[in-house]
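REQUEST ID: PR-0412
SUBMITTED BY: lab tech R.K.
PRIORITY: routine
TASK: structure prediction, single protein chain
INPUT:
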Amino acid sequence: MTSIAVKDLKRPRELRDTLEREREVMVTRDGQPFAIMIGVEPDNADNALREIRRALFSSAVLHARRRATEEPMTQGEINTEIKAARQARVS
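STATUS: complete
OUTPUT:
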């Protein structure tokens, strides 16, 4: 995957050409990955965004499951997390 520095985003023609050619670009800040840009068809942008969100959600669930297996929580820790989440919703 081609990468481009955040500061280089000021060159829209080059960015557009790269996205048309490669379909995806890694955006970096200080040499570290920061974001991923993908090219989409105008009539398919909403579907593409929905699929990206679905993939990110699935990845987060998989990560949580692995973490729960590797570092299981006690019932007390679970209750503490539930209480904190409920308090955050009320605030």
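NOTES: The longest strand covers residues 32-38.
REVIEWED BY: pending
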